[in-house]
Amino acid sequence: MLILGIETSCDETSCAVVKCENNRFFVLSNIISSQIKFHAPYGGVVPNLAARKHLQNILPVTKKALKKAGIVPNNLDFIAVTQGPGLIPALLVGTMAAKTFSYFWHKPLLGIHHIEGHIYANFIENKIENNLDEISKFEVSNSPVKFPLLCLVVSGGHTQLIFMKEHLDYTILGETLDDAVGEAFDKVARILGLPYPGGPQIEKKTSMIKNNSYQTLEKKFPRPMINSKDLNFSFSGLKTSVLYLIKKNESLLKNDRFVREVCHEFQEAVTETLIAKTIQAGKRYSPKTILLAGGVSANQYLQKKMAKIIKKELPYSAYHSLDTRYSLDNATMIAIAGFFRWEKNKDNKNFQKEIANNWKTLQTQANLELK
Ligand code: KG4
Ligand code: ZN
What we know:
371 residues; alpha/beta; Nucleotidyltransferase, domain 5; 6-stranded mixed sheet; 5-stranded mixed sheet; binds 5'-O-[(R)-(carboxyoxy)(hydroxy)phosphoryl]adenosine; binds zinc ion
């Protein structure tokens, strides 16, 4: 089975071809055209600029993905596209392209939830096959990911703890009451004068600070809602603490040691909070596997600390680490999620009708619900 995935929900135009054979996935191509440099001067993603860039990129990126995979459209079994949530002008380009391909190539079209894609990125195994550059393999039968599972979703737009009893069955246990964690990273970076996107910049700055050995930072930042009984998060107060600190003494921004210490302490406060809530949920719901999903899961400090604490606090749950090549937005994750949707519903007549008609009926949704 050959699947074309398309993702344009934010600032990456991505197309991927995934082959599924005998319960194994092969990523034949995963082309990502990033627009970061165009949005960086504005300190964040400008929706209409993103749409314009997607429009320029979508056909060359699709052609490149097909060429690299060594296939022609006729070989495809179906197309999977990000339907939402995301920036509407950006989503529209991907869905319109997918609908056009679906119509011209006579291929069924599946609309995928962006976060479902991030979660299913965990179903690509870390291994790279011998001498097959960039090709990943994954054996479904021996999947290290076992249900029920708990997934901490941490992206630029979402912060959620999701419990899954089985494939495609989602219960949201908790979520952010204000800013998403990636958004908080980006805003704090901006306050500190660091370029967009802030997450990787902040992580880079933390590298020289060891064991909270602060020389310039007098007070620690709060760990928001860490003692609340629910599984929700809040990051806007933490961001405001950084803002007030800088407002009190802007000249400190010239001191690189100070900026590094703020980055370190901010990352520490965020990871401590995320991990505490994940452990709380793990103790309550006893998942077999715990996963991370979304752009912030590229953070190595979060990954390592999460693995260590789960081993200690939740010995009956296995932490599954995500291949960071698939942490950020990409179309492979959309194709893989499409595969599991297809597998679950392929014998359902209504589903078959829906995906055959999606070339004309699929609607983008900025606030699409995960269900
Ligand atoms: O999932 P993603 O690519 O896009 C959305 O669906 O939102 O996530 C982007 C977010 C940005 O806020 C970016 O700053 C953050 O992920 N991010 C990181 C790291 N790499 C990306 N945050 C912390 N540490 C990182 N290494
Ligand atoms: Zn994303």
